[in-house]
Amino acid sequence: MASSDDEEDLVVVVTTATTTLIAVYYQYFLEKTICHDSILSGATHVDEVLNDHDARCQDSFRMEKHVFLRLCDMLKEKELLRHSNGVRVEEKVAIFMLAVGHNERNRILQERFQHSGETISRHFNAVLDAIVALADDFLVPAGPDTPTEILENPRFYPYFKDCIGAIDGTQIPSMVGLDEQVPFW
Predict the structure, then answer these.
(1) 42-80 b/e with 16+ CB inside 10 Å = b?
(2) Residues 53-79 pLDDT 10s
């Protein structure tokens, strides 16, 4: 049987632990705050990449610096994205590009850009919606006729006669093993 002193100590430990857990829950989930443990904000990271060598932008954002900046300008010009609450359009697009280009998870992006998970998700979805809105400007449905590149090439015709086309009409050669060819037809 436990003594009353042991029981009192246990009550103090449990009460302290419970109070601590409630405080942590309140801080991180109800207030949606994030611990900024880095002097580098997301904007600083984006500026650092954009002011560095072109290859760094290509590696980070999967596009050349001038293409990245043109995309951001286009999204602003068409009023599909705008700066908000200290987050520039360039940072929003960077979040999106790191997510899709590197398969980065929300938690990693939170650390890199020093934003909450909800903020990362909101900006990712805003850029996704904006990119989808640009689709009509860049994607042209294929016409009903078979392209001449297919008609005149025995390697492609009649195999691709009913193909609806590629994004920009480019044929990309690929090699698939014999045992896997049927699913790729």
Answers:
(1) bbebbeebbeeeeeebeebbebebeebeebbeebbeeeb
(2) 888 888 889 989 999 999 999 999 999
